[in-house]
Amino acid sequence: MLIDQIKKAQIEAMKAGQSLRLSVLRMLISAANYKQIDAHRDLTDEEVLGVISNEAKKRREAIDSFKAAQREEQAAKEQQELDILAAYLPKQLTEEEIRGEIGKLDLGTDFGQAMRVASPLFRGRADGSLVAKLVKEKLGNG
Prior knowledge:
Strand content: under 5%
Oligomer: single chain
CATH class of the largest domain: Mainly Alpha
């Protein structure tokens, strides 16, 4: 189970004195526990990946905000946290790979319908906002 790997990594980080990694892993375990309480059952690996993806998305948004405010030190810290989280996510697709896969899909002309087709294919493997941007591009050009 993925959550067990994260808990094991938390113990290793504690023993190694890696305070930032320990903090990120504690936060991740806490977020998973809240999700587990809401679900009233143990989480599947896919649900844990969803929690990790949500936390990674928060970090990406924070990085953008800090960079816009020219707060590079905070942006760097968020980037370090994102790197720790990324270790537990599947390899993310590049923009070209996403574009190629979207090109193969019959998306129709409605953005909402197109996203209902495309989103499940990229869940956990690509940033949702990037997928949305590329779907809009295809619909605009299609």
